[in-house]
Amino acid sequence: MLILGNHAKKGRACMEDIIKNLDLHAKGFWCPIIWTIILVLYVFIMRKKHLNWLQIYCTLGIISMFAWLSNSIFGVFLDWVDFGNPAATGLAEMLTYTFIPSSLAIIFLNKFEKENRLKRTILFVILSLFIEWTCNASGYMVYKHWNLFFSVPVYFVIYYVVLPIHYYLIREINSVEFKIKEE
């Protein structure tokens, strides 16, 4: 009975650690959760104009990887910004890196046309700045050596240069015709 009691205590302590590491009590925790829900739902219900599901899957993975890499450089290594509890990567932080940038990229690319490239870029820069501002205003995102205005050229380069290059690379991926060639 004593052995079972010790295992139960260890299990309870482990579960408490997991819940603590989810950072559910971080200030402004709700903000990235709401943005994630809105953006992911929009990706699911939007009319697929220029992207198919395979291209969406590819974009989700690549943009999420770059978001996590950016966080590792700017949030951890350089320590320019904190999200939630700086000592833990919580649930909202995971959702922030994984779904917010990739959903914005998917929505942008799905509506991408060369004719209105600059106008759409400016619109998405403003949207990205607004999302960043709400995360900062809610207290979830804390600037240390960063500033909202520093994000303007970063977002502009991402939307005007990086994402069109990404689209150029994935444009031939067709979910109906995509097959691995056997030799």
Can you walk me through this structure?
The protein is mainly α. The chain has one domain (2-170). Helix content is 68%, strand content 3%. The chain has 6 helices and 2 strands, in the order αααβααβα. It has helices at residues 2-21, 30-45, 53-77, 91-110, 117-137, 148-170; strands spanning 81-83, 141-143. Strands 1-2 form a two-stranded antiparallel ribbon. Helix 5 crosses helix 6 (148-170). The model has no long low-confidence stretch (mean pLDDT 87).
Structure described in brief:
This protein has six helices and two strands; from the N terminus they run H-H-H-E-H-H-E-H. The chain has helices at residues 2-21, 30-45, 53-77, 91-110, 117-137, 148-170; strands spanning 81-83, 141-143. The chain is globular.
